[in-house]
């Protein structure tokens, strides 16, 4: 299985350890992982701000870099969702193939690799943050407002990690307030929402907050640092890859 590793630009610049953990984890699980070095932004910031037409160059480059792989895998639900819904180009046939073979990491591990066990250990108290786009658009977890059997692809994987103690916040699927450009245009509301999330995890005395999107975790990390909290953030890939 030949996998193209799609790493969001902010992860590449600020959290390269997440990219490395993702690559190592996929390789441990038997994938041939290729990182196209010329990949750039997927174009989501432009689309979020109402300027999707400005992302044409991003689309063309994305297709050039990721054509020909069996799957494209990314440790970020928001970027995957953008590609699934907005990747279009003059080469529409190739764009369509990529839109249908790009996967968020936990989605890929659960639905494609069908991982049953992991050789990972993380002996700490951990709270999971569920990102809105992954839950409500990619269907990575159930929604509390719908009367359906609960499920979570992230939790199912985390439960396979030795030594981990998972503690759920009361409002398990509440938004952290990041929302991409929302945190810039509505910073006061964004911060208040993030503080609410942090308070619930702190009340559970967790040592780490994890999730599938470093964008949300980056937002929470900023609040935690300003509060001089001892709680750390860590991407789910880093836990699943931990020894």
TrEMBL record:
Organism of origin is Sediminibacterium ginsengisoli
Specify the protein name: L-lactate dehydrogenase complex protein LldE
Domain Cysteine-rich, by residue range, is: 3-83, 126-220
Classification lineage: Bacteria, Pseudomonadati, Bacteroidota, Chitinophagia, Chitinophagales
Q: Which residues cross the membrane?
A: none
Show the GO MF annotations: oxidoreductase activity
What are its GO cellular component terms?
cytosol
Pfam families, A to Z: CCG (PF02754)
